[in-house]
Amino acid sequence: MSHIPVAALVPLIVIAIGFVGFCWYDLSRSRVRYLPKWAWAIICLISIPIGGIIYLTVGRDSGTARG
Predict the structure, then answer these.
(1) Could you tell me which of 65, 63, 62, 59 has the C-alpha nearest to residue 24?
(2) Which residues cross the membrane (predicted)?
(3) Which residue has the higher pLDDT, 48 or 1?
(4) Residues whose CB falls within 8 Å of the CB of residue 66, separated by 6 or more in sequence, listed in order
(5) Distance (Å, rounded) from C-alpha 63 to C-alpha 66?
(6) Residue 11, preceding peptide bond in cis (omega within 30° of 0)
(7) 24 φ, ψ to 5°?
């Protein structure tokens, strides 16, 4: 088993944290479908990046005004 240097993982961790932060920011400003906001927040956090992608494509109600 090869050893992966920690420095190689840092950019991936930063991108993952940024993606979850973006999803949470969008979640706080948007209306959602199918699940409550707290459930989408947990899904985005637990399954990075699939949960965020599912939220952005299915869970976000893009037909309504933001606010």
Answers:
(1) 59
(2) 6-27, 39-58
(3) 48
(4) 29, 30
(5) 9
(6) no
(7) -65, -40
Nearest to 59 by CA among 49, 51, 18: 51
Residue 3 has pLDDT above 90, yes or no: no
d(CA 66, CA 53): 19
- The strand pairing partners of 32, in sequence order, are 60
Q: Average of pLDDT values for 29-57?
A: 93
Mean pLDDT, range 10-22, rounded to an integer: 94
* pLDDT on residue 1: 58
Residue 45 corresponds to which amino acid? L
Do 33 and 60 meet the contact criterion of CB atoms below 8 Å apart? yes
pTM of the predicted protein model: 0.77
